[in-house]
Specification:
It is a single chain. This protein is of the alpha/beta class. It has 20 helices and 13 strands. Among the domains are: about 5-85, Arginyl tRNA synthetase N-terminal domain (Gyrase A, domain 2, 2-Layer Sandwich); about 130-160 and about 275-370, no CATH class; about 165-260, no CATH class. The radius of gyration is 29 Å and the shape is globular.
Amino acid sequence: MKNIIGLIQEELSEAFKKAGYNEKYAKATLSNRPDLCQYQCNGALAAAKEYHKAPMQIAEDIVKILKDSSSFKEITAIKPGFINIILDDAFLADFINKMTTSETFGCDKTDSPKTIVIDYGGANVAKPLHVGHLRPAIIGESIKRIARYIGHNVIGDVHLGDWGLPIGLIIIETKRRHPELPYFNESFEGEYPEEAPFTISDLEEIYPYASAYSKEHSEYKEEAQEATAQLQSGRRGYLALWQHIINVSVKDLKRIYTKLNVEFDLWKKESDAQPYIPNMVRDMKEGGYAHIDDGALVVDVKEDTDTKEIPPCMILKSNGATLYNTTDLATIVERRKLFNPSRIIYVVDKRQSLYFEQVFRCAKKTKIIDADTDLIFLGFGTMNGKDGKPFKTRDGGVLRLEVLLKDVEEQVLSKMTERDMDKNEISETALKIALAAIKYGDLSNQASKDYIFDMERFISFEGNTGPYILYTIVRIKSLLAKVQKEGIIINEDMPITPSCSQTETDVMLSLCKWQETVNAAYEELAPHKICQFVYELSDAFNKFYHENRIVNNEDVKRRDSYIKLSRLVGDVLETAVRLLGLEAPERM
């Protein structure tokens, strides 16, 4: 189904051709002066130079051809050569009715579905999720949902950190505390216990302690490094302990991610890429891509057009040890083998842009990925406190993500004490609202921008906030429940009728932006565009709701049209918030 701007451009194109001008100038856009018109075409200004005519003359030529079009209520030429357009009410209503008959409200599935891998977790085993993990999780989840909505095959990968020194530190500290465990007895040949010797709470205490202790005691750090090397070399007891660490960690991580309404298709780990490293390194050497520089194996990735210094991509340290670069490149090898993706999208802190530039160039240069595979770095900004600095606890520590969720939930609960709901319903509703406050507060910002986490504003039921969006959906649910309760039978064969008020027109115009919004959100990897859409539509609907009698309208034809329009708004809003990873409650 063509979007509304596409339909407008079709008519403009025919008019430009008929008037003797190139149709490339027939570009329609949303009006930047909505007080004057709904859409506009500025092509006459651009065409003036080519045709050596005054822009106004070209604009008037086009308007003359289109003045009797049934699509436009008004089309006028305005100095110095703008073409202002107001749609015909029947044309607009017809477009809205076509949206109601489409499963995706007119948003066509792609003709060329791609296989896309999104790397958007980045959590580490044995460590709790903190606020720094919020943005990659919810931005990546939304992009995954948007891409799937328009028909792409998308694989979301958490890509856990599980193979470095932190594991060695946990092994050594566990050994110090429980030397009797069989994992540390190299002569042990039996089956290791099925139950882990620690809980997630134990791990969350063990790692910070061991990390801090290693910084003050070099021999302890050396012991941990040796344990890491033995783990990576396949020491049986350490591998069993490592598997316990993963199992306990993943179980807890899934619990938190589920609270965030974030799901991963793959729970791949750094260690999964290890089998691909030897052949990858061999191929880099044999292909003449890698060479020794100061003892280390590197690939030069600098290009002649670079205006800044791009260091070589290090593949192996001088002692033969691997690095994050090595693992990330081997993960690309693995993803190519398993999925052969058209795109791999990395949702990562924007401060790592240089690192990923090196990795992507190395992957392309060494041909471990096809030249036509898109490697995309989506760098996100920082979530800051009101002081403009990265969000911290009151004592300056890193705030756990679970604690943040709980704090916001409690703030929402305090605003709902007077609600006529039972305890369980209030609790479930408060969690959905709290999640909307956090996620919408984040996603409504352009991903690359830093933003201020303002709890008071984010949990507000008014303004451009998640709770306000959910409140609008719940209002529509309540309206439709009233229709059912009062036994109102809607004539489903009757279409939504042309608008008879400005607020109704505004709702329809907002709905018309659905297709282009979703497509732009995918193409630009920009969930904030969905947020802009749902806020504008919610605001337009609430004004319409307040200014018109809907359920109790005495004009039955008008009543049914209003109810059907309200239902469409509710359906579109619920679809849109699902693309953001949100869910609306039944009541608020």
